[in-house]
């Protein structure tokens, strides 16, 4: 699983250098490997010795421990409460996931990301204080559908249920026109953030007389319905 599959990685706190990942199943291992390969310090935790050994052998975490995340004393002794961000990836075990999240928030962990497996699971996690609940399978499914139906969209990050930020190849209808001529704000209600010139140079906050060229990509932000109206 590549890091590009997890759009929510970009929304993790940028000033963090340390992360703890509780639950080292397929999803937890992918999260741990991605963060570790990005240069962060990662503590991996699971109650299963088998899962722990697999992560140790794969060398995808800085520290790996076998412990019960529903036991607050075990978490405290392991130093988990000292991490600014903890990812609870026990998505398929609702009770353990909720208790682990509750333990973390009651101990004062600043930012807890928790994987949910259902809407009810999501509600429970929110009730006990999870700062961010993710449905990675849903996100990957949406990204696949977008890739199949709108191949010009290179990247899409959901900001909330109604708005997204997208990077897309300049549509043929836009090529050769300036931003002023396109008037994206009035025509689509979208805001241009940047232009990536042939993948070589990123121009942030481009000027109105900037001309769109074929092969460039444009970064836009706005309403999902407006994005879907683009000629892509």
From TrEMBL:
GO terms for molecular function: monoatomic cation transmembrane transporter activity. Residues 16-135 form the RCK N-terminal domain. It comes from Roseofilum reptotaenium AO1-A. It comes from the Bacteria. It holds the Pfam family TrkA_N. One of its GO terms (biological process) is potassium ion transport. InterPro entries: NAD(P)-bd_dom_sf, RCK_C, RCK_C_sf, RCK_N, Trk_Ktr_HKT_K-transport. Gene3D superfamilies: NAD(P)-binding Rossmann-like Domain, Regulator of K+ conductance, C-terminal domain. Residues 152-232 form the RCK C-terminal domain. This is Potassium transporter.
